[in-house]
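Lay summary. Proteins are chains of building blocks that fold into shapes, and those shapes determine what they do. In this project we predict the shape from the chain. Here is one chain we studied, written as its sequence of building blocks.
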Amino acid sequence: MIRYELEARDPGCGARAGRLHTRRGPVETPCFMPVGTQAAVRAMTPEQVAATGSRIVLANTYHLMLKPGEELVAKAGGLHRFMGWDGPILTDSGGFQVFSLPGAEISSDGVRFPGRDGETLLTPERAIEAQRALGADIVMAFDECTPYPADRPTAERGVRHTLEWLERCVAAHREQDTGQALFGIVQGSVYPRLRERCARGVVEHDLPGYAIGGVSVGEGLEELKRIVAATAPLLPEDRPRYLMGVGLPEDLLEAIERGMDLFDCVIPTRYARSATLFTRRGRVRINARRYRRDFYPIDPACACYACARFTRAYLHHLYAANEILGTILGAIHNVSFYQQLTALAREAILDGRYPDFKQGFLGALSGSN
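And here is the predicted shape, written in a compact code that computers can read:
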């Protein structure tokens, strides 16, 4: 099980600094979790992920159910041993695939996903069972992630299913008694009253942690700010708050200001694969011709392995030559950037200066390289 320790709140906003105590060690918050959908963070070894300062990673239940199958992972000794990661692991339940995969058929029982090898029925009980077999430290309740835009009836159905399925997840989780921490998810699209209804229903279960879902499906930054500002205060102060699937650096900074603690997104590694690297003065398209003879680090303010050892010119060459090392170094740098961002945010919260920090960081990000 886990325990959340709230260490500080910034006096000028809702930003929080805390510590998530897990059976595999503490995690300082705010915290960014690299995404290892298929039990691997793209283009990085577990040692490289840890060297960025990452303490917890995310894997996806639905995809691991399909390949290689949760039974095989369990036989291998669980997800930690299977993927060679010693730190905590959070598994998504498959709820995001309800939104992202075409052809999903939603009913009160669960969701049917079409596939080449036949249909896959994912129910709340099945999601909990699979996550038990995977052996994650934090497991997510099965929910209906509502698309954007969504009319009110669609959003209401999502809230109804999310709450009904949570009841079944709690019951299945209680029966298995694995010591895993079950987090509930708040849905409701862009409708504040639906968000409030869902939050109150989820919080009634007195879970060890809570998440806000459905804000990384196309709403944009202004809607994200509005939804998080309305929803975060409805969640208990003494539990971790997880904003699912978010996002860009500016998204994290705005969500931290509004009281969120945990984040995950594929953006750092995905952008690395397309030669887009993050710096404190904005994004760098390292395959642009201007970097062909640039012998500075990717980001002079960064001390990651890629910045400490290599130049922009070398990264430019790697991407131009289609060498996989370019993606590897880019991923190391981007994940390191996100870890540095959340570490600096935490320091600013502990010092009581988060609004000034956020304003300065965002101002610098608007520059260009």
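What the prediction tells us: The CA atoms of residues 50 and 207 lie 28 Å apart.
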